[in-house]
Amino acid sequence: MTRRGLIHRIRAFVHAEHGSATIEAVMWTPIFLLLFGLLTDTSLIFGRQSEILRIVQDANRSLAVGHFKTIKEAQTYVGDKVAKFSHHSIVNISIDQGIISTTVSVPATDLTITGLLEAFSGVTIAVSASQMSEV
Q1: Are 100 and 133 in contact (CB under 8 A)?
Q2: What is the model's pTM?
Q3: Higher pLDDT residue, 114 or 127?
Q4: In what order do the strands lie in the sheet with 90-96?
């Protein structure tokens, strides 16, 4: 191959656009995967927060109608149910003037799956519900 032919091939290679879409896709794929992971984690946080609220409301109702005899029983119930999401949850139940109030605090990172939300590592999700005692 002559020098002139080599220079021509190099210039043709530099100016060719074959495969540019593939390179762009390779460059954009990690960004799309990161966004998908963030969307997944955010959705899980909201979904699990809703599940925890349902657990808290069930416990309040059971305590209000006398199914649970003591606050300790209700705390154990909530703690056991929330343990499938987080082993770092804090459950507080109080009864004041016939109003049962329950609060569950869970670290946001315990509710995610990918762990991409490092910005929320210090965030705690608190779920609260109140109900009037019927007994």
Answers
A1: yes
A2: 0.78
A3: 127
A4: 90-96, 99-107, 124-132
Nearest in space to 58 (alpha carbons), one of 85, 80, 38: 80
CA distance 8 to 82: 68
DSSP 57: H
Q: Where are the domains of the chain?
A: 3-132
Residue carrying structure tokens 């509710």: 111
Which amino acid, residue 9? R
- Are 128 and 56 within 8 A, CB to CB? yes
* Size (the chain), residues: 135
Terminal C-alpha separation, the chain: 97
Written as one letter, the residue type at 69 is: K
Task: Summarize pLDDT for 41-100 with one digit per residue, the tens.
Answer: 889 999 999 999 999 999 999 999 999 999 999 999 999 999 999 999 999 999 999 999
